[in-house]
Amino acid sequence: MMAQYLEIKERHSDALLFYRMGDFYEMFFDDAVAAAEALDIALTKRGKHLGEDIAMCGVPVHSAEGYLLSLIRKGFRVAIAEQLEDPATAKKRGAKSVVKRDVVRLVTPGTLTEESLLEARRHNYLAALAVVRDDAALAWVDISTGAFHVTALPPVRVGPALARLMPAELLINEAVDGDLAETVSESGAAVTPISRASFDSAAGEKRLTSLFGVGSLEAYGQFTRAEISAMGAIVDYLDLTQKGKLPLLRPPLREAEARMMQIDAATRRNLELTHALSGGRTGSLLAAIDRTVTSGGARLLERRLSSPSRVLDVITDRHDAIGFTLEQSRLRMDLRDSLRKVPDLDRALSRLALDRGGPRDLASIRNGLEQAEAISETLSGAALPTLLQSAAQDLTGHDTLIELLGQALIAEPPLLARDGGFIAEGFDTELDESRKLRDEGRSVIAAMQTEYAEMTGISTLKIKHNNVLGYFVEVTATHAEKMLSEPLSDSFKHRQTTANQVRFTTPALTEMETKILNAGGRALEIEKRLYSGLREAILEQAARINATARALSEFDLAAALADLAQGENWCRPEMDNSRDLVIEGGRHPVVEQSLRAQGGAPFVANDANLVHGGDGAHIWLLTGPNMAGKSTYLRQNALIALLAQMGSFVPARTARIGLVSQLFSRVGASDDLARGRSTFMVEMVETAAILNQADDRALVILDEIGRGTATYDGLSIAWATLEHLHDANKCRAFFATHYHEMTALSAKLAGVENATVTVKEWDGDVIFLHEVIKGAADRSYGVQVAKLAGLPDSVVARARVVLDALEKGERDGSGAKRAVIDDLPLFSVAPPPPPATNGPSEVEKRLAEMHPDDMSPREALQMLYELKDAAKTE
Taking every annotated instance into account, which residue ranges of this chain make up the domain DNA mismatch repair proteins mutS family (predicted)? Predict the structure, then answer.
């Protein structure tokens, strides 16, 4: 056996080998050591190899999926070696013959299909990156849904594309160059180098045409060599990992980058589109807007949010769909109620195609198609907009399949086909006859037990069954002597003695067992055959079922976004081909929901007015203190533009948005120590990317450029950056800064206008009003903010002294400023103020003596007047 194990392991040296032995997957040698540590399970040993103990651990087959998930998340690949024959068959070749085993599947992060291993509301992409000369292409597939996409892109766009897709696993040529290797290592995907032969475009085209059964790929579009190379590598890898059992993939869909808003990795991270900066989904924009009720709808929402459109007609159609479902409130409620009953058709279909499904997947297809028909009836007579009308056409046409599955399956089938009992009574005559014999056999066994109890006079006699002895008569040890003596010994033959029972059999019982077992086994074989027939009937309609699944997701998303718009008071944005961004009463969707959940103050809405040409300005220079809400304001305008172009309504009173080609965000501070980059270096790298790439239709938000270096260096960099955005990029931008000197640029640059976040001072403290108005802030209020943060009073007082001195020097000229700094006492830090020794005031005394519950309204009002007079005298 160990020779067989080592031979299989040698062929899969880069994966942990799950070696099937009966009801367990066993691991040996180094695999066992690694798996035991990763899974926190016991490490044992079995025999010796080359004079040393063989390490061993194992996991039960019935619960293997949970262990697989843990291993995959920790970066392992797992090869599943199953028994390919029955042990009884192996014994026929000789007593010491080893059961045939081989790897039937390689489990990797990008090739998961099991429901328990996947997030229902997210795609699980396997991607491949191909480079042919100076051209690059990225292909990606979700084998759990069959989605297959490809795009050609310049190498510089690989990073942003990977940030958009967030693949679970990325295939690269083992000879990929250093620059791209660094890019893919930052993607967060499990990177799998494969041979150059897998990326051969000529071989790739043959694999693809064979997979889809076509003579040429031209029917699906004009693909570049790099695109064919990437797609071919994916198909080759799937053939390797699935051991020839390829998943049910849809024809490849070619995506054009020019049709999507371009968003780089830093912007996605800063805006927290699908993941919060803390790493989880909670706190992200996706979590705030997701009201879908189906898994397919949730995945469609994430795709739309990650890839906003730049095509005006597409955006308009999506807005029309939301507008229709928003107006038809009764229809929307009925639609969402029906959609809640829709299972995940895509993933059920994929499991059936890979032969990893079961009766419940058959039932999922049945239930999903039935709900699609019901939704179609709900929509009958409605004047649907273009997008929903097209989707509605794919909801029907499954009458024959629905009828077949409805007649064949019980309401709630078991998980596994081998369990049987999932075919409905009356569907197959032969099955019904076998079941009848099997079930009547059980009643016969019960009658035999009664007969034997009366014959022996032993009321506790039982007829039982196990997989070793089959059916047997069981009595307690106290009655054993009676059973072994005449005349009972003539009928009852001893089979086994345990600690407390003795077991017997009879010729009649053995004969009945044969009949029952044959009937039960026959019934199970018939059900397995019928399962295969139903599976084939479904796979024949796979393309139409996929279309229905997409249609249901489209309806789910439209209804969900309409529900969001109604519940959150969002408006339909006006989209055009201008380069303007005009928003009235805009709000940050995530912050607004967070404030509401915490029971805090309502969100303060603000306007934005970026206009090219005329008297307008396409860049707003935003000043104001920290914590006043500048970053929130910057982000909310970017999110409103993004939501509008993904096809959603937006959190504002009104919005008019000219199509945005690129979205860039440089907000927040972070370092990248692993690559030797300080916070300032990261800031400069991201700013450089914006200045080098932004076109005149881009939207840029920049916050505190230049803060990570000396004051004059930072001011110079921020100044030059703003000039470049205005003169060279000519894009729309919100530029937040603490350098008040930059407000002078509004007089020099026609397209720049000053705006500020208002605050109010009260008794030396600062109150944030969170309102953005035209104009410039007169100062930063940094000392007041420091006081709010809890700095010791002595530190705050000292800071005020230094600030006053610096401001006086600034007014007197740079030389005087230096002199003022030199004149500041070196050790003049004020000691902490002594605690107040005065007793309570007269007003405080009166308040302490009051008992509001005992006062009438008139007495309370009189007391209020008295307290007011007392306060004046103090």
Answer: 698-714
Q: Are residues 164 and 86 in the same domain?
A: no
pLDDT at residue 788 tops 70 = no
In a domain, 548, yes or no: no
| 3-state helix vs strand vs coil in the chain, percent to 5 | 50, 20, 30
Q: Would the annotation count 855 as a binding residue?
A: no
Residue 506: inside a domain:
yes
Confirm whether residue 630 is marked as ligand binding. yes
pLDDT (tens digit, 9 = 90+) per residue, 544-582?
999 999 999 999 999 999 999 999 999 999 999 999 999
User: Vertex 465, ends 462 and 469: CA angle to 5°?
Assistant: 115
We report the CATH number of the domain holding residue 120 as: 3.30.420.110
Burial pattern 309-339, b for ≥16 Cβ within 10 A else e, equals: bbeeeebbbbbbbbbbbbebeeebebbbebb
**626 assigned to a ligand binding site:** yes
For residue 625, being part of any structural domain is answered with yes
Q: Give the distance from CA 264 to its chain's centroid.
A: 19
Strands (E), 451-556: 462-466, 470-476, 493-497, 501-505
Q: Which of these three, 107, 128, 157, is where a domain ends? A: 107
Q: What is the pLDDT of residues 636-680, one digit of tens each?
A: 999 999 999 999 999 999 999 999 999 999 886 654 544 556 777
CATH classification at residue 493: 1.10.1420.10
Domain identity same for 179 and 31:
no
Order across the sheet with 501-505: list the strands: 462-466, 470-476, 501-505, 493-497
Residue-wise over 385-408: b if at least 16 C-beta within 10 A, else e? Answer: bebbeebbebbbbbeebbebbeeb
Q: Long-range contacts made by residues 816-824, C-beta under 8 angstroms, separation at least 24?
A: none
The 3-class SS string of 2-49 reads: HHHHHHHHHHCCCCEEEEEECCEEEEEHHHHHHHHHHHCCCCEEEEEE
Q: Is 631 annotated as contributing to ligand binding? A: yes
Backbone angles phi, psi at 473, to 5 degrees: -95, 130
DSSP SS3 for 496? strand
User: Does 734 lie in the same domain as 699?
Assistant: yes
Check whether residue 124 and residue 233 sit in a common domain. Answer: yes
* DSSP E strands, 135-200: 135-142, 147-153, 169-173, 190-194
Q: Which of 224, 255, 286 is the endpoint of a domain?
A: 255
CA distance 784 to 769: 15
The whole-angstrom separation of Cα 350 and Cα 373 is 22
Q: Token pair for residue 824?
A: 């500041």
Residue 567 CA from chain centroid, whole number: 24
Q: How far apart are CA 294 and CA 275, in angstroms?
A: 20
Integer Cα distance of 740 and 61 in angstroms: 67
| Ligand-binding site membership of 9 (annotated) | no
Computed over every residue of the chain, the mean pLDDT equals: 88
pLDDT at 827 over 50: no
Q: Could you give phi then psi for residue 278, rounded to 5 degrees?
A: -75, -15
pLDDT digits (tens, 9 = 90+) for 436-488: 888 877 788 888 999 999 988 898 899 988 878 888 999 998 888 888 888 88
For 584-598, write each residue's pLDDT tens digit. Answer: 999 999 999 999 988
Tell me whether residue 462 is annotated as binding: no
Q: Looking at residue 14, which CATH number applies to its domain?
A: 3.40.1170.10
Question: Which structural domain range is residue 715 located in?
Answer: 573-787
Q: Which residues pair with 700 in a beta bridge?
A: 664, 733
Residue 284 in any domain: the answer is: no
Within this chain, do residues 99 and 162 fall inside the same structural domain, yes or no?
Answer: no
Q: Are residues 100 and 120 in the same domain?
A: no
Domain count, the chain: 5
- Cβ(798)–Cβ(829) under 8 Å? yes
706 and 634 part of one domain: yes
Rounded alpha-carbon distances, angstroms, from residue 726 to 124, 690, 694, 699, 747: 41, 13, 11, 12, 13
Instruction: Give the full edge-to-edge strand order of the sheet including 606-610.
Output: 574-576, 654-658, 581-586, 606-610
- What gap in Å lies between CA 598 and CA 721, rounded to an integer? 38
